[in-house]
Amino acid sequence: xxxxxxxxxxxxxxxxxxxxxxxxxxxxxxxxxxxxxxxxxxxxxxxxxxxxxxxxxxxxxxxxxxxxxxxxxxxxxxxxxxxxxxxxxxxxxxxxxxxxxxxxxxxxxxxxxxxxxxxxxxxxxxxxxxxxxxxxxxxxxxxxxxxxxxxxxxxxxxxxxxxxxxxxxxxxxxxxxxxxx
Length: 181
Description:
Elements: E1 2-3, H1 6-12, E2 14-15, H2 22-31, E3 37-38, E4 60-61, E5 64-65, E6 69-72, H3 78-85, H4 90-95, E7 98-104, E8 110-113, E9 123-127, E10 135-140, E11 143-148, E12 153-156, H5 157-161, E13 165-167, E14 174-180
Parallel strand pairs: 1-11
Antiparallel strand pairs: 2-12, 3-6, 4-5, 6-7, 7-14, 8-13, 9-12, 9-14, 10-11, 10-13
């Protein structure tokens, strides 16, 4: 696995500093008692999943279960939704099918998967925290590329939806966000 190069950044359509208020979003989430749902249990009843499974279906891949937490948009208050949506184009704010904030405590991870499902046409992925070690691993031309976390970064999920991608066990607290349309 190698770190992403400038050439590959354009292939993934990565835009730095896209979510200008990423620290404010994290501070707000951490200052409230939002309920993040654990996403590893075979009994998971997640309504929507970054694995694009149906309601009530486990987040299990052929390799086992992932281990991370999700705050679903139906569990967010209006203030948090407004903080998120002030960063995205108006069309995305209107047409989104779901918004999720993923939380990874040290050691948490998401197993290799592909997100393709007919009802979702595009994923917009954002990293809210910065790390030299943690990030999203994506398949790219038969290689695996690490896209290091950078707070506020946008990653166009179109390429990742159809290719293998995952998050290795993180070393420090990690937040990311996904908006599906």
